[in-house]
Design a protein that fits this description.
The protein has eleven helices and no strands. The chain is an all-alpha fold. Helix 5 (69-94) runs parallel beside helix 8 (133-160), helix 7 packs across helix 8 and helix 8 (133-160) crosses helix 9 (169-187). The radius of gyration is 23 Å and the shape is elongated.
Amino acid sequence: MTRMPARARDEQARDGAVRDGRAGDTRSRILDVSERLVQIRGFNGFSYADVAAELGIKKASLHYHFPSKSDLGEAIIARYARRFTDALAAIDAEHESAPAKLAAYADLYAQVLRERRMCLCGMLAAEYETVPGPIQSAVVEFLDGNERWLEGVLESGRASGSLAFSGPAAVTARSVVSGLEGAMLIARPYGAVDRFEAVAAQLLAGLAGTARAVRRFSDEPDEAASMAREIRRG
């Protein structure tokens, strides 16, 4: 049997998609299924065969849209990052105070967990050493973008007096991302979103609570001095 040339196979897959009138739709559906599989199984935990079987299409159609799994992974992250950036912009538009923005940010993670998924880039970070270089770079870029946004929110909160923390805002931003990602990971085996929500609430309340304490003690110097003595004795 004569083997069909690669170009002919690509054209056949393309023509099939065009005949269906769903070329763009097929690409989106491939990304939807693949994103979910990464969030549940990890990048190394699924294959083109899994995606093709779920969508009821041939693997050739996947290769037409995404020649390699690395190409697919990059496209998944790029789309996920765009959506997350849009979500952060929406938070900025809808909330004025830094504590409210942080609460809305934490809820983005909770929403993912409610769907029994993990943060896409959190999953990829766990597989960092085994995924292709371009995907590694995209994961770092995503996390850096989150930290930069959080840094701005934290600095704004400290300037307004609604948040308080020691040291650079960048370090606290990393702590917030790390804390939320870790809380998701530990909540997952329990299948309990409330475990995540309780940890996230405590993490963020600490920033606002410290700010309230600082304001209270600055208004009441005697109480502040008393607290300082207690700390020294402890």
